[in-house]
Design a protein that fits this description.
This protein is α/β, with parallel strands linked by helices. The chain has helices spanning 18-31, 43-53, 69-76, 93-98, 111-125; strands at residues 9-14, 34-40, 56-61, 80-87, 103-106. The protein has a 5-stranded parallel β-sheet, with helices on both faces.
Length: 127
């Protein structure tokens, strides 16, 4: 197995709130290990793009959107390496793990929450 190469980790964010995307994108950039390649406020646009890209390392996905993030995850999970839900809906945590998410972060988000989730995933991959 090849070592985990953190220099090339590509991220996509899907959230219907642009402010949440901007904050999350700032935190992702601060990690130094991830690069956001696309953001979407429309989950359908996000689904179509991810299917086209098919080389996404991290998907940061909201749940409470016009099309539920849980439904989005069901149709694109195989196209992303790691799935992190970032949502204000704590009550969906069990459902989120049912669609094989790697991490579940409850808003409000902080840099520490994002960095911890990413670091955890990278450490597990390097074992």
């Amino acid at each position: 197995m090849l070592p985990f190469n953190t220099a090339q980790l590509k991220c996509v964010i899907i959230d219907d709130d642009q402010l949440s995307i901007d904050i999350l994108n700032n935190f992702i950039a601060r990690t130094g290990e991830l690069t956001t390649i696309a953001t979407y406020t429309d989950p359908i646009d996000g689904i179509l793009a991810i299917r086209e890209i098919d080389d996404v390392d991290f998907l940061f996905l909201d749940i409470g959107m016009e099309v539920s993030g849980l439904d989005v995850a069901k149709v694109i999970r195989e196209h992303v390496r790691y799935l992190i839900f970032v949502t204000g809906h704590e009550k969906y945590a069990l459902d989120a793990f049912g669609v094989y998410c790697d991490k579940f972060i409850v808003k409000p988000i902080t840099y520490e929450k994002i960095n911890s989730a990413v670091t955890d995933i990278i450490k597990k991959e390097n074992r």
